[in-house]
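re: ur question from earlier - yeah i can do the single chain one, its not a big deal. heres the input i used so u can compare w yours
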Amino acid sequence: MSNQQNDTNWNDLSDEQWRERLTPEQYQILRKQGTEAPFSGDFIQVNEHGEYHCAGCGQLLFTGQQQFEGHCGWPSFDEAIDGAIEYREDSSHGMQRIEIVCSRCKGHLGHVFNDGPTETGQRYCVNSLALTNRGED
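and the output i got, formated as tokens:
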């Protein structure tokens, strides 16, 4: 990550600056709480190697060891890196859910559910477009 990314005050970026940094699809998800179509993303297949970072600011969010096959159409993880995620109540679309956002840039990532099959019982359901993967493929 460049020093410029480390020095950025993410909360002060304007809407126009976000549009310049992100693709239109990433902007819709990260800044407008959109959702990509199920089974359309790049990171649905479990990759135990590498690290998953926020596509908005580059913050480390998940490791490959935290990913599992969720059969839900989006990348699934059973826990996040400590302090990387903020949790918000979300009652949109007539549902009660917990939205997950990047703790650094406040970009929308997806939602977390208490129906995960691993020991944590958590399923972080994340939009692929909100992530970048760094590491071995």
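The first helix runs from residue 3 to 7. not sure if urs matches, ping me
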